[in-house]
Design goal:
The complex is a heterodimer of chains A (283) and B (273). With 283 residues, chain A is an alpha/beta fold. Chain A contains ten helices and 14 strands. In chain A, a hairpin with a 5-residue loop joins strand 6 and strand 7. By secondary structure, chain B is α/β, with parallel strands linked by helices. Chain B folds into two domains: 197 residues, Glutaconate Coenzyme A-transferase; 34 residues, no CATH class. Classes of the chains: A alpha/beta (283), B alpha/beta (273). The interface between A and B is large, with 46 and 44 residues.
């Protein structure tokens, strides 16, 4: 059976559904799939969400411009359409004292407790590549529901052992986190195959919902760590007609979310470049 | 008394091995590039560079083999891609990468800003970041919880590029507070020596628009165009053509090509400081 939605749309919709109306969302730079999920939620079931938008030029609160591509090519929109510009000190303090409900994070590697590596590819002593996690390590502690996602589901992304721990995941019984008045840890892991949650006592990742057409066996085979299985397997409900309409027509008509997927990255980049050129010609 | 000195004199105060923080924000904005070029011309070595979002300034110094360690929550050019010299040279292991988390870097600077030895802080608990930086813990004497003790960041120098400062070191606040503009003032207050590179030296006429007071500034350097090839809003935009077609190309072609870049655009630079 042909599906009438793509994998980026499926993931985006599942991620958007993690946001509840009234939540505060911190949105980082250069993660358009997360941005599309945020804007989709805001324009469907969560109109009262508030968010911090880390633009490329401005730190802003609740910019009203909802077309992600426009925000990418014209950073001034994060200023002119926002309710407020906010200093970085204030947003760090706001988050540190518990103001942020959700932030989406895309790690290089995640283990069975949801601890993440966003720093090193290869041996940390002799890295093949080196990155910086910016606030990932902070968000894993301070945000109420850090939501993890990977755009490839395989043994390289969902690993038995991290080569470097940038940010802490769940802890057994949540003891340490309770003592620290920290959040419980990551809430979900979204992948192109399924959604994982965490068993509360052991803190270990568990299959939560399968995407339609995906088998438990496929998920187990492609997951590098031992996965807990639920008593009964559930299936994620596919995007609704309304969710697809909002996503395709209002929130992300140029599909910037596809920048985060290997298969579609080059084409998405070319679309954004074309928009930039068109804007430069108009100016 | 005037704090204005020539660029070369201010840069001469920076010795080998200094702990030096640079200002700037966004992918390619407000970076004190002419100051970094002068450091390279003077042959300064083994710098320990501190930045919140480290970018082109740090990448240039890495390419000039002037860096002993990077200390940052991010190192790259954000929407303009990875930092090319950093990416090329990091596998050599010729400088140390000390990764901070965003909140931790701000905490260690705040501790220095407040004149206290450390700040109790929550993040990044139980991460390799905290372990590698040797961050110790402390018990909350009131509530009993255990916190990281974020040690005050001892900075020898802070260097920022601003639109306008007066000769006494009073710095004009930006018309539009862009990304992490306030980080510049935090490093300025935390460092022993603070160098302000100003696009223009002119009075700050409105006392309500002062971002740093003269007492917080050691030297003022007149540096028009000093952020190039990064931008200085609203005076000039980042020079993305130079970045993509000259800088990144040279860096990606290897060490020899980048040394030629340094010869042309830094050591023998005519026209641009």
């Amino acid at each position: 059976m042909d599906k009438d939605y793509s994998i980026d749309e499926m993931m985006c919709v599942q991620m958007a559904r993690d946001i509840e109306d009234g939540d505060w969302v911190n949105h980082g730079a250069v993660v358009p799939l997360a941005g599309a999920a945020l804007m989709l939620a805001k324009n469907t079931h969560a109109p009262n969400l508030n968010f911090f938008y880390l633009g490329t030029v401005f730190n802003s609160i609740n910019p009203s411009e909802s077309d992600l591509a426009s925000m990418l090519i014209d950073p001034m929109l994060a200023y002119t359409s926002s309710r407020a510009l906010i200093s970085h000190h204030d947003i760090v303090n706001w988050t540190a004292r518990g103001g942020c409900d959700i932030q989406f994070l895309r790690p290089l590697q995640v283990d069975c407790l949801g601890s993440v590596n966003v720093s090193v590819i290869g041996d940390p002593e002799k890295p093949k590549a080196r990155f910086h996690g910016i606030a990932v390590a902070d968000v894993m502690i301070t945000c109420r529901k850090p939501v993890l996602y990977v755009t490839e589901h395989n043994h390289r992304t969902l690993v038995k052992e991290l080569s470097f721990c940038t940010g802490l995941g769940r802890t057994e019984n949540g003891d340490w986190r309770r003592r620290m008045h920290a959040c419980d840890g990551p809430f979900h892991i979204h992948t192109p195959l399924c959604v994982l949650d965490f068993e509360p006592v052991s803190g270990r990742a568990r299959l939560h919902r399968l995407n339609p057409g995906v088998s438990v066996e496929e998920v187990i085979a492609k997951t590098g760590f031992e996965l807990l299985l639920p008593d009964e397997t559930q299936e994620s409900s596919p995007p609704t007609t309304e969710e697809l309409r909002v996503l395709r027509e209002i929130v992300d008509p140029h599909a910037t979310r596809q920048l985060e997927f290997k298969e579609t990255r080059a084409a998405a980049n070319e679309r954004i470049e074309q928009l930039k050129r068109a804007r430069a010609e108009r100016a | 008394m005037s704090k204005v000195v020539p660029l070369a004199e201010a840069a001469r105060s920076v010795g080998d091995g200094a702990r030096i923080a640079f200002g700037g924000g966004g992918g390619m904005m407000r970076r004190p590039m002419s100051f970094c070029r002068e450091l390279i011309r003077q042959g300064v070595k083994d710098l320990n560079v501190f930045q919140f979002l480290a970018g082109l300034e740090t990448d240039l110094l890495i390419g000039a083999r002037a860096v002993a360690s990077t200390n940052a929550a991010y190192l790259g050019l954000l929407e303009y891609g990875p930092a090319p010299n950093f990416s090329r040279i990091v596998p050599e292991g010729s400088f140390k990468v000390n990764e901070y988390s965003e909140f931790l870097l701000i905490a260690v600077l705040r501790a220095a800003d407040m004149g206290i030895p450390f700040l109790p802080w929550k993040t990044p608990w139980k991460s390799d970041l905290a372990k590698n930086l040797g961050i110790k813990t402390i018990v909350d004497p009131y509530g009993g919880g255990e916190y990281l003790a974020a040690p005050a960041c001892q900075l020898d120098f802070a260097v920022i590029q601003v639109k306008r400062a007066d000769q006494d070191g009073y710095v004009h606040a930006p018309d539009e507070p862009d990304l992490i503009y306030d980080f510049d003032y935090l490093i300025a207050r935390a460092a022993k020596t603070t160098i302000v590179c100003a696009e223009e030296i002119a009075p700050v006429e409105d006392p309500a628009k002062v971002a740093l007071i003269g007492a917080e500034v050691t030297y003022v350097v007149e540096a028009p165009g000093g952020a190039w090839p990064t931008g200085m809003h609203p005076l000039y935009s980042p020079d993305i053509k130079h970045l993509n077609e000259v800088y990144i190309k040279a860096s990606q072609s290897g060490d020899e090509a980048f040394q030629e870049y340094l010869e042309e655009y830094v050591r023998n630079s005519t026209g641009r400081v």
